[in-house]
Amino acid sequence: MSSTRIGFIGMGLMGVPMSTRLLEAGFAVTVWNRNADKCQPLAERGARVAGSIAELCANVDVIMTCVSNTEAVSEILFGEQGIADSAREGQVLIDFSSIAPDATREMASRCKEEHGLDWIDAPVSGGVAGAEQGTLAIMAGGDTELVERVRPLLEPLSQRVTHMGPVGSGQATKICNQMLVSCNVLVMAEVMALAEQSGVDASRIPEALKGGFADSIPLQLTGPKMAARDFDEIKWHVKTLLKDLDMANALAKANGSAIPMAGLGAELMRLHGSKGYLEQDPATLVKLFSDRS
Amino acid sequence: MSSTRIGFIGMGLMGVPMSTRLLEAGFAVTVWNRNADKCQPLAERGARVAGSIAELCANVDVIMTCVSNTEAVSEILFGEQGIADSAREGQVLIDFSSIAPDATREMASRCKEEHGLDWIDAPVSGGVAGAEQGTLAIMAGGDTELVERVRPLLEPLSQRVTHMGPVGSGQATKICNQMLVSCNVLVMAEVMALAEQSGVDASRIPEALKGGFADSIPLQLTGPKMAARDFDEIKWHVKTLLKDLDMANALAKANGSAIPMAGLGAELMRLHGSKGYLEQDPATLVKLFSDRS
Question: Is Oxidoreductase among the key words of this record (chains A, B) (predicted)?
Answer without folding.
Answer: yes
